[in-house]
Amino acid sequence: MAEEKNKQQKQEKNKEEKSEEEVESKTEGKKQKKIKEKTQEKKYKKQEVKKDVESWIPKTRLGKLVKEKKIDNIDKILDKKLKILESEIIDSLVNLNSDLIAIGQAKGKFGGGKRRAWRQTQKKTAEGNTHTFSCMVCVGDKDGHVGVGYGKSKETLPARTKAIRKAKLNIIKINRGCGSFDCSCGEKHSIPMITEGKCGSSVVKLIPAPQGTGLVIGDDCKKILMLAGIKDIYSKTFGQTRTTINLVKACIEALKNLNKIKEIKK
Fold first, then answer.
1. For residue 103, which phi and psi values (nearest 5 degrees)?
2. Rounded distance between C-alpha atoms, residue 262 and residue 191, angstroms
């Protein structure tokens, strides 16, 4: 009897070990699939951007100069403060990465609460409730260029494309440096001085940090700083910081003020 019990226990243990191995293999397979899907999406987007640039017929004078390759650097455009009216100008000069900012809120009991990228609103009409979706996109090359755009449409994908286009048109150059008294490396990993930006009641104060600190700021502003190429920073926020749109605009305003301080010093 004892031998039979031992056999049964061994068989049960083997079954449990096999089930655990199967679960682990399934989870690993799912992770690999997600990674492959993301890489494929990135490649597909790059191919689409290349096709759009190749088939692009410029309408503005600046666009024609870029198409003819007389202007091959975006800094020449931004330093002269020329107005960019075509998003293909940015696509042909810079390799950009984009990320959605969570400005919406999921539905559910007691107001939901979970943040999401799409902000849904509705309007009362004679025909019924008409829904509109809006989203906010951040665009950057992780080398001192960043832009934010807001798009609104009756569907999600058109709103996203509008937001990406506006973000490309709103791209700015950021003055980076090493302004922390704890660090004297001279590399462009942080900002050169303390700066502050305001939008509505939301105020964002950015403070230089030494290497290895990371981005000590909220998740939404962290996306902007990462795409701008800033790796280390301290921050303080004041006012109504839950209004994400104003908070993001205040962060962009703080980064713009770095360039104004640089111009005043000159």
1. -110, -10
2. 12
Q: What is the pTM of this model?
A: 0.78
Q: pLDDT band for position 36 (50/70/90)?
A: low
Cβ count near 39 (within 10 Å):
10
Fold observed for domain 195-265: Ribosomal Protein S5; domain 2 (3.30.230)
Is 106 a residue whose pLDDT tops 90? no
Structure tokens at 172: 């700015």
**Where are the chain's structural domains?**
195-265
pLDDT category of residue 4 using cuts at 50, 70 and 90: low
Distance between CA atoms of residues 118 and 70, nearest Å: 40
Q: Is 202:241 a contact under the CB 8 Å cutoff?
A: yes
Helix (H) or strand (E) holding 13: helix 2-54
